[in-house]
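Researcher: Here's my situation. A collaborator sent me these components and asked whether they could plausibly form a single complex. I don't have experimental data yet, so a predicted model of the whole assembly would be a useful starting point for our discussion.
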Amino acid sequence: MDSPFLSNTTLSFSSSFSSSPLPHLFPSVSFSPVRFKSTQRRILTVRSKIREIFMPALSSTMTEGKIVSWVKSEGDVLSKGESVVVVESDKADMDVETFYDGILAAIVVGEGETAPVGAAIGILAETEDEIAEAKAKATSKPGASTPSAPAPTAASTPAHPKSTPANAAQTVAEGRRKTVVTPYAKKLAKQHKVDIESVVGTGPYGRITPEDIVAAAGISPSKTNEGPAVVVEARPAAPTKATVVSSAPPILPPPVPGSTTVPFTTMQAAVSKNMVESLSVPTFRVGYPVTTDALDALYEKVKPKGVTMTALLAKAAAMALVQHPVVNSSCKDGKSFTYNSNVNIAVAVAINGGLITPVLQDADKLDLYLLSQKWKELVEKARAKQLQPQEYNSGTFTLSNLGMFGVDKFDAILPPGQGGIMAVGASKPTVVADADGFFSVKKKMLVNVTADHRIIYGADLAAFLQTFSKIVENPESLTL
Amino acid sequence: MHSICSQATTVPISNFASGSRSPALAFSKQVNLRFCGLRKEAFGFSGLTHSCSSRVPFSSRGYSKKISASAESNGTPPKSFDYDLIIIGAGVGGHGAALHAVEKGLKTAIIEGDVVGGTCVNRGCVPSKALLAVSGKMRELQSEHHMKALGLQVSAAGYDRQGVADHANNLASKIRNNLTNSMKSLGIDILTGVGTIVGPQKVKFGKVGLPDSIVTAKDIIIATGSVPFVPKGIEVDGKTVITSDHALKLESVPDWIAIVGSGYIGLEFSDVYTALGSEVTFIEALDQLMPGFDPEIGKLAQRVLINPRKIDYHTGVFATKITPAKDGKPVTIELVDAKTKEPKDTLEVDAALIATGRSPFTNGLGLENINVVTQRGFIPVDERMRVIDANGNLIPHLYCIGDANGKMMLAHAASAQGISVVEQVTGRDHVLNHLSIPAACFTHPEISMVGLTEPQAREKAEKEGFEVSVAKTSFKANTKALAENEGEGLAKLIYRPDNGEILGVHIFGLHAADLIHEASNAIALGTRIQDIKFAVHAHPTLSEVLDELFKSAKVKAAALNHAPVSEPVAV
């Protein structure tokens, strides 16, 4: 787009700004009040001799404007054409000038406040005699969209009674102790209409800090989170079939000072929801040591062909599940078994601060190489946040492997909608004695399955694990 | 402490301009804007080969006749000289002059009593740019709204104070080494010690405890620079009441710091401190903040740089007494109304930064030996930087450049003055056009300017009877600025519609400091608007802000027929 061939058009584009006869289309360049003056927009309307200054419509799309600053103060004498106020529209900041001579009797909408287009933002009196009348008019006007009325000083700061006897005594004792307010505290107080006099400073040397004002205004202090720490696209992380009424929010402990609150990303929120839902399922766990020397040997052989350990374990689990369909079933309603015709192994993966479970569908039917290839694709898609829903929520059994971290055994939480989840630890050399009493060193890996006891009982799981163990210990079948 | 180079930030009269200091400073003094620039040579570049000239026998010079001629008028002039040129002070001004002198074939020495690089490199523009680079990045990372608009998510940004301080310090030493090496490699003698003028064309230098040496030179340039100005009543302890010298070391980041003076130094430090989490209170003697800037730019800058930040201010007040924090008490600042002299307020803060301008560093220079009387410390010079003695006569072979003469307290102005002097002593008359020297304030966004402000231009126009027009463009219409989501900004051109002469350009916006040079070069070269408006700018760039600015100027038809400055060449 930086092509020199385009520069002609761009030139004319930008120069059209400088000589733009279309102020209502491009008010942003209209920095000069002069141009604005020449348009037909009228800011003031005649209302006897007291006139209201209205929020002008500075662009065709403007519905409200913010007062950036009042160029003139109350009581200033204005002459026609003078800038009175700077208004920020949705497009630009513009000086707005008066079309009448007079005195700025009252400012209705203060700096930093907003008002809808057409609302009175100030009152213009023609002579000094009318100022009082104009002011009365101004106070009778509740201003604009923001609470400009200086109402709730006492009400908003109930915590700090203005003049209890004790306070008074203290004041006397300290002599003419002045109120010290930090610059930001002052700004906040103005913004939130907090009466500084009513606030007790808790900062160094008794000064009033921004925190004091925030407390007095009753604003939650942890509003200033800096946004989530990780970038994850919105997408539920796991199946959410079970319906559990989210319990009432617990009473939160007061925040530790200096802590920051970072809201969940969509994925993290989905994880959280699923984890809470899992509490409604009665689960139990069975562990089993599996010797992996043979599996490791096989892995070394097939690794050059792109087979991963994840694929090997998923395949082994799938083959064991075929023989134990109950472990592949799920309990949807608390009254029945739902047997799944497919063996879909979901594998938990940590990605960018989130957690997702891409699913190897029909893991029992696909061969190792296809499975490995499929897995690679899924991980790439997960990283690119392009997984389709059926690619992460169609699992019937979940595999979670923390062995690469050196974890020897751990306990997984059963995802809603599934019957079991297998937690795989690291494979470690272990001294074992065989039936004949000979010692040897074998690599052992502890697997720990969490299951829904409504449908899967201890013997079911034990039998499943035994099968799984046999497959792993004699892994030739995996390659068939 | 012999330091040169101009870093002074505020007009010295900005805050304490009452009785003793004449508030009615001439206009030229008002231009005491300082900023800092290093010549390219500082970074090791040199177009010269080593064999060049510095060892060429003196008599072979074409201008040697002039020396003997001028010697007559000098009382007791040496018959021959150790050097062609001696520069007292190795700041940016002295450095610029020295490099140009070598280029012109002069045998040159530079005397430095402190560290090479002077204020700019060691205690001014250079380390402050390091801090400002940090503050700019912090500001960006902290602006949730800005980041969101770009589609970015950033977790809480934090900083390590010592790491930031080290960055500033490392930058200063790197630039200092570059400066030193660039001079050494060209064969410039760096003489260590405090330089004192003992007579015409004669300088003494030496360190405490060592015998002084006396050297002679055909020409001498004083470039001793300036030091922070601390008004009386203010007790600087270097910890809680500090000057820019201390602040640049960033030994602490106070919760609340008062900055006395809202000129460049004050403004830049407010940018640094607020980005690092401090709250700031400005104390300004004049009725409005940022005196010295074009009022319109100042107004906009205040709306962007002051109002939305954790800053408040007291204007029209003097800080008559500042007491450092001690015995469990905070820093106290007594404010007095600038006009009525009535006590107005007392502030209690955690720290105070004195940024009330800079004083020339001219004590101990031996000016009495040559009958020169300083004016408020500044050495009087004419438009060719020639030093004027107490009787109003020019002193032959003696020049003063940079902050020490007070003409324009900017590092690059000192350097330009030095180059101008070298041009003169090598036989080419040269007068520097100070109105073509740009100045910049490195806040976020930046402010830059060259030439006259609008009120100055209108005053001049009234006197000389010409018409003044103003053109403005907004950064909001610039593609590149919008792409960066930094559309806040304004460029303003003050010009003569009758002949297209550029009188002044003021920019507030993204990279304003880099953008100003198109305008300053145009002024320096005398390029008129009707010619420069045909120059092409790459699209989309920020430079198109100026392109549009020039194109939006309305130069009268009569001026359009005059021949351009140089004929275009077809290639």
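Model: Some features of this prediction you could bring to your collaborator: Chain A touches chain B at residues 2, 6-7, 10-11, 14-15, 17-19, 26, 28-29, 31-32, 68-69, 86, 91-93, 178, 180, 182-184, 186-187, 203-205, 207, 210, 225-231, 260, 262 (CB under 8 Å). The CA atoms of residues 81 and 98 of chain A lie 5 Å apart.
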